[in-house]
Amino acid sequence: MRVTIKEIAQMAGVSPSTVSRVLSGSSRISADTTERVRDIMRRMHYRPNQLARSLVSRKHTIVAVALPSAAQTSLSDPFFYDVLRGISVGAAREGYHVLLSTGGGDNEDDGVAELMHGGIVGGVILLTSKVEDETVESLLFHRFPFVVLGHPVRDGQIHWVDNDNVAAGQVVTDYLLSRGCKRVAFAGLDPHYRMTVDRCTGYRLAQKAAGFSPWPSAFLLEVPYGDTRVEPSRLRAAFAGPDRPDAVVCVNDLLALEVMRELASLGLRVPQDVSVIGFNNIQAGRFSTPPLTTVEIDAERLGQAAFGLLLRALNQPDAEAAHELVPFRIVERASVR
Amino acid sequence: MRVTIKEIAQMAGVSPSTVSRVLSGSSRISADTTERVRDIMRRMHYRPNQLARSLVSRKHTIVAVALPSAAQTSLSDPFFYDVLRGISVGAAREGYHVLLSTGGGDNEDDGVAELMHGGIVGGVILLTSKVEDETVESLLFHRFPFVVLGHPVRDGQIHWVDNDNVAAGQVVTDYLLSRGCKRVAFAGLDPHYRMTVDRCTGYRLAQKAAGFSPWPSAFLLEVPYGDTRVEPSRLRAAFAGPDRPDAVVCVNDLLALEVMRELASLGLRVPQDVSVIGFNNIQAGRFSTPPLTTVEIDAERLGQAAFGLLLRALNQPDAEAAHELVPFRIVERASVR
DNA sequence: TTGTAAGCGTTATCAA
DNA sequence: TTGATAACGCTTACAA
């Protein structure tokens, strides 16, 4: 049997409420009793029962992280782990616990609804890359604290953290151009996913700003989100003639790695013939040949920032929605000439 | 305000206990009321408060995963992600939630103690690779359900899952020998970590069984657990003379990748001059040059198995300690000749 | 088949 | 500065 507040009270010869006050550091308790109670708590290895505690106080010490419904997908993307680490670090520092929610198996809304009404957690961080309106609407309706990781489409009164993906797309393209590339392709656009759209927008802005006449439409390689490779025939087509691209911006590292592989099989050398750059700075990019130049988006910091905003939302439920942009930086390796 | 069991009861014109019985699917309730109550619950989007529920029933719907104290370390090893995925998948299927515990920052025992006495979780899976006796003793003493992932030193009455690391070391070495390697080195032994010791034992057994006279002691490269590379000078020494190894078994992939890199800088070709094999099958191994031959230890399945055992421990607290060995297999790529 | 009442371990509101 | 007492939302004997 676990030791409870009552037993501590009895042993100390005080009432449970006094013990509770000691626990919460209430000032209006004599130093004497405080001392005595503290001592007994230590000796008995007493820990307050968090369940009982939050049941009555309505303060929660757990926050949930909602992963995209397909646990299989999300938990194999290193990106999510870095984010998760950031969240746990932030949470641990503030005495919070992190609950993993993989979407319950059924639909995602259901998983989040369960979290909201289940009473276990006080708030939730949505990692789901394609935030479904229904989920967000429902969260808002119930005034349940949440933060979205990734710039949502409807970004009115909601907390979110993200990189500035437009800027990132632009910076990356500028970088390529500054290294002498003249014809830059873009791989990985999926119109349904804002992140890919934003990076592509940046790419276009950079191109325009540099005064290039539009590149062939074959340079824009769409890839359904989550797919790890460009359809080979389309890639080959884009890189066929003499007017082929001399660089590719890839929307994530995994895609970039596969593109490099495909390029090699076409007899094109990276970076001599084609420069390649990715996003996310995954571990595998350090070991490829050549090592992949990429953008460090600082997923861990994204996670920490997300937790930070959630904490704020928890403490000041009526504060205005906040946003946070986490800086990124290019990691120069050898896949760009 | 969240809808509670009382309101449902009132709306249905029954008592709270009746609603509770409907909730738990008690048989002794008329089909009529069951129907009516169910209907109202649906319409009101009612969800039982898990906190209140487990407070009184002493049944928990959350299990914890205790990561090694240094969250930084563990959450950057892909192995842990795969394990985590396995655990969440298993948990989700059984209606459980997974709580991440990064060890609270201070010492690890403290984190686990918090979990035990905090009343939030019903059991814990220890991922901590170097299980500290104190933690385990304390868990046992309090009869708190737990499962260790990794074969613990003192494996008496405790649940654990693991690969058969001795067998794995043996199979891997046999594989190398069968491909014509004659002088096999071993990198990554750390006497404090059973996993590395076991794999090394297998390596030795295979060597002996194949009838080789003992290889030079320089072939045994110790590396502190967690370190990602062999000390370069020692590696160079081992691969100096004409009697250098023609193969290396590396205790994990990251180490193998770094060894390959180092070997290249010594002017040795993989696999023509030296064959390299790793463990864990991390993503980066697919993209190295040459792609890394490795052992798939099925971390995800380890995770699922761990949850399975924990579930059993939760339901039958007095059952005997169970162990489970998860099969492994060699993933043949190009780093072995 | 259903209701009443007690209690899970804590906090919070009154009084004292 | 402290102590009763009533919740929090639920389950579960014990009655009816």
Can you put this structure into words, describing what you see?
The structure is a homodimer of 337-residue chains. In chain A, helix 9 (165-178) crosses helix 10. In chain A, the strands form two sheets. In chain A, strands 2-1-3-4-5-11 form a six-stranded parallel sheet, with helices on both faces. The mean pLDDT of chain A is 91. The first copy, chain A, has helices at 5-12, 16-23, 31-43, 50-57, 71-74, 78-93, 108-118, 133-141, 165-178, 194-209, 232-238, 253-265, 299-315, and strands spanning 62-66, 97-101, 123-126, 146-149, 159-162, 184-189, 220-222, 247-250, 275-279, 293-296, 323-325, 329-331. Helix content of chain A is 43%, strand content 15%. The longest helix of chain A is centred in the C-terminal third of the chain and has 17 residues, at 299-315. Chain A has 337 residues and is an alpha/beta fold. In chain A, strand 3, helix 8 (133-141) and strand 4 (146-149) form a beta-alpha-beta unit. Chain A is built from 13 helices and twelve strands. Chain A is elongated. The termini of chain A are far apart. Chains A and B meet through helix 4, helix 6, strand 2 and helix 7 of A and helix 4, helix 6, strand 2 and helix 7 of B. The structure holds a DNA duplex (16 and 16 nucleotides).
